[in-house]
Structures are given as structure tokens and as C-alpha cells.
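Researcher: We plan to redesign the surface later, but first we want a full-length starting point. C-alpha cells attached.
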């Protein structure tokens, strides 16, 4: 009864939510700048009768909507922000809507609205069937940059949640059982003494020299890190003129490691390298932590339940025009790259239908860490969190690409989005009614995975930033 009614309510909300997703795609916004997106979602949720907190004080574009009362509390995670420089039309050749502008090449326009669709449909069924429990929709900003969820976690917004539904647009249907990397973004600022670079260089103390020496030290350090760790950097300020000894310079570093404890050790050593560069050049150094993400902890117990529902959820019907777009986007890739993508998904060409794999996957296991990072990791340390992907683009389309932006702005992508909402709503309905035992088992699994470690939120003095660093 309940799941059939969820399907009916998904259909009831489908047009509004698909239009919302495509509207958000047309008006992309950067991290902590998602005012229009958050406003739109908050107003829609208020009209449904949810209790909406917006803005949430820890982040100006975060929102939380709630329905019901008591336990269990089940969260639906949404994301709002777009990527810098990824503007693209819905077409099969590279053509920005606006050169250099933001674009939804990671599909957060679909991600947020898909979670909202699941929340909205389940809310109506809970009202109709008088189901006990609480559901929440979290509109989370700045996942691509400064980690809106980390600030929300510090505020305690996930502390009473029993489990979270999380999904991402992708080229396949899957539950991801791998970990993501822990991540820290830092900015190092050096201050020296300006001087005429030709007449009086001996009076100057070059902040740029300090940056370059830090980079040299960091590059030597790479040999003595675990092989699965990563460091990337860009010089964000190298001085103002070539004939002036730079009095100020700065460099931005991103550090990744499979585990948060490994990350912390590498970061400590990197700070020491920066201090050494400062001493060598007679400059001063300070640094700021811009964002910090925990590694994502997969949860087998919760994933198994969601996988069951994913396997049962029917595929959408695509129009000829939608399939033509997906086929043409697929053919923008060279054959060797297509073959690598098939291998990654464990698929053969014979299994594919219009470059899409019509069977769900369980991808990887807890021993595998993927290279990317996400602030969903922080939520997964607090409460059991599922990591679902649903087909919204062809199987070989890479995220953070113009092809992904085109697919995620299409009506075909939007059909995958509402299907994701359906799977999450079905799963949450099970947890609220007949499968509450799964929640306790998932919590025990999380406790074992943490191994006695306690989640440590970002520092109290760390504030949301509003410039646009490289995406995760």
C-alpha cells in the first residue's frame, strides 16, 4: 500500500520538481552563494506543510525541512552548488551558455531535487497512514568547495539522526561500498619585505621565495608519504610586479588520504615545511584551514536495504530525442576511454542499452578508497549513511565535464532524478514501518567501523568562505 502510494505522490510532484531541477540548472550558483536555489526549495517545502528552518545560522544558504515526530529520524541529503567554469548548453558539442561561468557538471541540481522528491512523497504517505517517526530534508551548500555539511555537523544538525539517505547522479545504478578520501584545504600566507628588485634586493625578504621553497619541500615530502595520499597546490598570490620583491604571497594546498588520522599526520608535516620556508626566507607565515572532510564510511547494512529497492524500481521511459542526446554525448569520447569506462563499471558492450547499463551494481568494498572527497564523509561518521547512485547520464560520461553538465540539464537526467527519489522514499518507508531492525544493525556496524575514534568537527573558529577554490 505505502510504496504504491509513494509512486503516486512521486507522479503528483514530478512536474514541479523536474521543472525546479532544470530551473536550478539554468541558474547555477557557487558555494555559499546558492540563495536562489535554497529560497526556491524552502518555499516549496513550506507549501507542502513541512517545518522549514532557513537560513540555518551556521551557513547562509543551508536549510532543514522536517515532518513528523519521534523516532526514528531519517535524513535525506541534498546539495545545491554548481562548479566554476563548467557552463554548458544541453547539446552534444562543447558550447558554454556563458564562457567561464558556473555550471551543474556534478548534477547537484538533480541531487537536491531528487532527495526533495523522496522527502515530499514520503511525507504525504506518512500523513495519510499516520506513520510515527521523523523525516528531514537537508539542503546542503558548498559541497564542491568548503563543505557545507561540515559546518552543519559542527552545529549538531545530524546528531539525533538515525540514518541518512544520500544519492548522486551517475552513469549507473549502484550502491557505493567504497570509502572516499579524507580531505583538507588550506591557504598559507607569507609576509616579507618589499624592495626594489634591482636597486636594493638585499633589503627585501621575498614572500614568493617562501612559497616556492615550501612547494619544493612539499614535493620532496611526497616520497615519504603513504602512496595513497595526495597533495595538490596552486599559487594564489605571487606578487604584484616583477621588479618588486614580493612582500606578500600565498599558496593553496589540498591534502588527501584514505583515513582522517593519516590526513592529520600529513597536514602537520606540511605545516612544518611551511614554517621551515618562512625561517629560510626571513618571512612570517600564517595559515587558514578552509575546509576539512572526513573519509566516507560505507554502511553495508543500510546499503543492502537500499539495493533491494533499487533493483525493484522500474526504469523511466525515454523519448527518441533524449536517447539521441545520450548517444551523441557518448560518442564524444574516444574508443579506448569508452572501453576503460566499461571495465570500471564491470560491464560489457553487449549488456548496454543506448550506452546505459540496466542492472544495479554493488561497487567495491570498505577496503577500497576512491580518490575523490566529499563532506558526506562527515555525516557518515555521525550516523549510518547510504551512498546511492542512479543513472542520469550515459555510462561513460565523466563527472565535472561539459558532457555531464549537458546530461544533467536534460529531461532524461531529470527522469533519473525522480527515480532516485522513489528508491530513497521506498527505503525510508521500510525503515519507518517493517524494517526498523536495520537501523540498529547499521548503527552497530558504524560503531565497529569507527573503531573507538570519535568524530571531530571542524574548529569552532573556522568560518564559511565565499571565494571559489578547486572542486573536490
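Model: Full-length starting sequence:
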Amino acid at each position: 500500500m505505502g510504496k504504491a502510494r509513494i509512486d503516486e505522490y512521486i507522479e503528483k510532484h514530478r512536474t514541479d520538481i523536474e521543472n525546479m531541477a532544470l530551473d536550478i540548472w539554468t541558474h547555477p550558483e557557487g558555494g555559499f552563494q546558492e540563495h536562489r536555489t535554497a529560497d526556491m526549495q524552502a518555499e516549496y517545502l513550506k507549501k507542502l506543510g513541512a517545518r522549514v528552518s532557513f537560513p540555518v545560522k551556521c551557513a547562509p544558504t543551508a536549510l532543514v525541512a522536517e515532518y513528523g515526530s519521534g523516532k526514528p529520524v531519517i535524513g535525506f541529503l541534498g546539495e545545491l552548488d554548481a562548479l566554476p567554469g563548467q557552463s554548458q548548453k544541453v547539446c552534444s558539442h562543447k558550447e558554454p551558455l556563458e564562457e567561464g561561468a558556473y555550471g551543474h557538471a556534478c548534477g547537484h541540481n538533480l541531487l537536491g531535487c531528487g532527495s526533495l522528491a523522496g522527502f515530499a512523497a514520503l511525507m504525504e504517505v506518512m500523513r495519510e497512514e499516520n506513520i510515527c517517526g521523523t523525516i528531514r530534508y537537508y539542503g546542503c551548500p558548498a559541497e564542491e568547495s568548503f563543505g557545507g555539511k561540515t559546518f552543519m555537523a559542527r552545529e549538531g544538525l545530524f546528531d539525533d539522526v538515525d540514518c541518512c539517505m544520500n544519492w548522486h547522479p551517475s552513469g549507473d545504478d549502484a550502491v557505493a561500498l567504497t570509502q572516499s578520501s579524507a580531505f583538507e584545504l588550506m591557504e598559507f600566507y607569507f609576509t616579507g619585505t618589499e624592495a626594489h628588485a634591482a636597486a636594493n634586493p638585499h633589503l627585501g625578504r621575498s614572500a614568493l621565495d617562501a612559497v616556492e621553497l615550501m612547494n619544493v619541500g612539499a614535493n620532496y615530502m611526497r616520497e615519504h608519504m603513504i602512496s595513497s595520499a595526495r597533495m595538490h597546490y596552486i599559487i594564489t598570490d605571487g606578487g604584484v610586479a616583477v621588479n618588486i620583491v614580493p612582500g606578500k604571497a600565498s599558496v593553496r594546498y589540498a591534502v588527501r588520504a584514505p583515513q582522517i588520522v593519516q590526513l592529520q599526520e600529513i597536514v602537520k608535516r606540511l605545516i612544518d615545511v611551511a614554517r621551515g620556508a618562512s625561517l629560510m626566507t626571513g618571512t612570517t607565515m600564517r595559515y587558514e584551514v578552509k575546509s576539512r572532510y572526513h573519509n566516507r564510511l560505507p554502511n553495508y547494512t543500510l546499503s543492502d536495504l537500499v539495493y533491494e529497492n533499487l533493483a525493484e524500481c522500474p526504469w523511466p521511459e525515454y523519448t527518441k530525442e533524449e536517447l539521441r542526446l545520450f548517444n551523441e554525448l557518448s560518442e564524444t569520447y574516444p574508443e579506448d576511454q569508452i572501453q576503460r569506462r566499461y571495465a570500471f563499471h564491470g560491464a560489457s558492450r553487449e549488456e548496454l542499452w543506448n550506452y546505459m547499463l540496466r542492472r544495479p551494481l554493488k561497487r567495491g568494498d570498505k577496503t577500497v578508497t576512491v580518490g575523490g572527497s566529499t563532506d558526506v564523509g562527515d555525516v557518515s561518521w555521525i550516523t549510518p549513511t547510504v551512498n546511492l547512485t542512479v543513472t542520469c547520464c550515459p555510462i561513460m560520461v565523466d563527472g565535472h565535464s561539459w558532457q555531464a553538465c549537458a546530461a544533467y540539464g536534460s529531461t532524461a537526467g531529470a527522469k533519473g532524478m525522480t527515480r532516485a527519489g522513489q528508491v530513497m522514499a521506498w527505503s525510508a518507508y521500510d525503515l519507518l514501518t517493517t524494517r526498523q531492525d536495520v537501523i540498529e544493525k547499521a548503527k552497530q556496524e558504524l560503531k565497529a567501523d569507527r573503531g573507538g575514534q570519535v568524530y571531530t568537527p571542524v574548529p569552532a573558529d573556522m568560518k564559511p568562505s565565499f571565494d571559489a577554490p578547486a572542486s573536490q
